[in-house]
Structures are given as C-alpha cells and as structure tokens.
Amino acid sequence: MAEPPYPMLLPLLLLLLHFPFLTSAVPLGSVLYASGSDQSWSSPNSTFAVSFLPSSSPNTFLAAVYFAGTVPIWSAGSVDSQGSLRLSSSGSLQLINGSNNTVWDSGTDALGVVSAAIEDSGSLVLLNNRNKTVWSSFDHPTDTIVQSQNFSAGKILRSGSYSFQLERRGNLTLTWNNSTVYWSQGLNSSFSSNLSSPSLALQTNGVVLMFDSTLTGGAETIYSDDYGEGSNTFRFLKLDDDGNLRIYSSASRNTGPVSPHWSAVADQCLVYGYCGNFGICSYNDTKPICLCPSRNFDPVDVNDRRKGCKRKVELSNCSSNAAMLDLDHTRLITDPNDPNSQSFFAGSSPCRGNCLVSGVCLASVSMSDGSGNCWQKQPGSFITGYQSSSVPSTSYVKVCGPVLLNEPLVGSKGDGNNSKVHLWIVAVAVLAGFLVWLW
C-alpha cells in the first residue's frame, strides 16, 4: 500500500484539535481544560468567549460563556481542576469531571453536528454541515438573558432554589423551591386574556418588551434606570443567587465593569427564604444580614448565615418547658398556599397563647395592620422572617425555655455588619478623652 502524502500532517492535525481556538469555528474533538486558564473559544468580535472561570465553591471551575472576561451569561456547570469541556466526535458538547464522569451533555449525538461556534450575540451554537443551528445556549438558558436573546413561555432561569419564568398568560414570576411565588408582574387583563405564545426580549436601550402575535410592536414591561443611555452599553437580565432578578449594564461591550440598574424586589429581605429556615432578615445600614431568632438557635453554617438556623434543643425534648420567644416588628413570611399554615382572627395575646398550648404549633404571627389576622405555623412549615421598625406585626416562636435573647448586634464580617459603627465608637471615645484632657 502506498504511503499517504505528507505523513506528518495527521499527528499535527490531531494536536491542533486539542489546542485552544481563538475564532468562532470549533471543530469536533476540541477540548477546553479546567486547569487551562488561557484556553478559550471566542466570538469573532471577542466580546464573548467559552472558558473555565473560578466557581463559588473552592477548587472548582465553571464552564461558561462569559462577557468582558469574567461575567458568565450561560454555564454548563462546575467541575474540579481535572475537568474538561469537550466537543465529542459524535457531536455532543460534554462537561466531564476529573473522574471522567459526564456532568452535563448537550444531547446532540447523531444530529449531524460538525462544529461549534460562539456568535457575536453571545450564543454558543452547535452547527451541522449546512451551517444550520442544531443546538443553541439561547434555547437552554441558565440564569441570564442577554440583549437579542428570545425568552419564551416555558423556559426557566434558575439559581439555587430560585427560578424565574414567563407564564403563558403573560405574568413574570419569581419562585422559591418551585412552589412559593414571591414576586409577580404582568400585563393588564385586556392584553393577558388574549395572549397565545408570549416571549420576552431585553432591548439595547434597556427596556424589556413582551412579544406576542396579539401585541403590535410589543408591550413594555420593565425599564432599566439607565434607559436610553450609552450607544455602546451592554445589558443583561440575571437571576442572582440571592433570589433577586436584576438588569445589569456595562458601558463597554469588552471590558466591563457591570452594575445593577433595576431589581424586581426592591427590599431584599422580602425575597422568600433569603435567610433560610428560621433565619430572620434585617438590615445593618443598607446591607441585608441574616440572624437567628435568639440564642435558642444556632446557625446551620457559621460561614454562611443564609443557610438558616436550627434549634439547640428540639421541642419534642422539652414539652413541659416550652416558652414563647417574642419578636417585635417581625413578620414570619407566610406562603398562603402552605398546607401547614393556618389563619384565623385573634388578638395578639390569644395568637401567642394558643400557639404555646398547642401541641403542633411552632410559631405564630399577630398582624397589627388592622386585619386582626393570626397565622400559625405547624410542623412541615418553612419559617423565614423579616425584622424592621416598619413591619406591622409581632411574631412568636416556640422554644425550649428559658428564652435566651440575642446579644446586641455587633459588627462582624460574617454577618455583613458595617465597620463604620466601630469607627464611630472609636471616634467618640477619642473625642471624649480629648475633652477630658482639656478640662
């Protein structure tokens, strides 16, 4: 058999298949390694790229399409430092961990995929031999929608326990744990009653429009507060891991930085479950912090107060020594659809006393808004609270006595307190000393 011409070309081609590509064309067999921070697949205008970024968990890396070098807009998931993202010879894009297990798969085997590309819009696409899109990251969003991306009813953004979706009747909703809707915004009834297949798109001027065959020109639903500013501004809509939906803007498409210009929930403490089970959300200066109701509880994780609190002693171990912890100006946020939560009319004293003597009540809330409502939480309830001087309710939590009130709030990095308080105390002490010296 005759020797093939240019025998050294084959090894060279195989080597190139595993080399980082800086253009939009990514052939079958291409690989990005989590440990190769200099590797990427880039869009033609270099605004977007696919690579690995450090993840929020230690020693893990996020396989992502990112903007401005560090801002992920779509992700396949996280792996350890030995992981990789591969465009297999069979046409599937796969995220593989260091144990050679598949963490994520595009599911495009046998669909004729011959290459991948990163478009200037930010979409990662898999293409067939006719250059037609077989799979697109825009059709499988994770937690972000960018300009020119269509987000239709049925698609969902997810971040931890939180999700965002456009319902077929035109409502935008934020949901916790696939069950509790804590934010909703929709069109008026004259529009929503006639919708057939609604979709959303973030415009380059900072307006979110809802489109449908029944809506001429689209209906405006959200305005970014930098609406119309900057001819080169890049914007995206992101569901953050704190459960809030925000519009972010960057003055430059290539360098960032990004800043928020709209949020769905103006008061972060009203994001359901933000501080976890039995966690109480409050504010130190302008920053939300998470506390336990009292020293009868411990944080589930002292390094992450958002994971909630647990009882030091379970109620089942102190049935004869139960007591009620009074939390003034505190609302234990209630999901009206929670089967383990009951509402009835009662004053504050009966609301508190009935829970104390009840064998199944964990906590109660007495509303001071004129409604006279009393909510009781039973086993199985998720209990999350908001404490502020403006909250018109008092909450009661059953604990094993004696009641151990929290110490006065002291600033610390772990719970987000502001060191300005300490600087003020120091300044007052210095001034007092100086006055004493003058005297």
Automatic annotation (TrEMBL):
A Pfam cross-reference name: B_lectin
Subcellular location field: Membrane
The keyword Transport is assigned to this record: no
Transmembrane parts of this sequence: 421-438
Residues of the signal peptide: 1-25
Domain Bulb-type lectin: 23-139, 142-260
Assigned keywords, A-Z: Disulfide bond, Glycoprotein, Membrane, Self-incompatibility, Signal, Transmembrane, Transmembrane helix
Membrane topology, from the record: Single-pass membrane protein
Top-level taxon of the source organism: Eukaryota
Presence of keyword Disulfide bond: yes
Protein name: Bulb-type lectin domain-containing protein
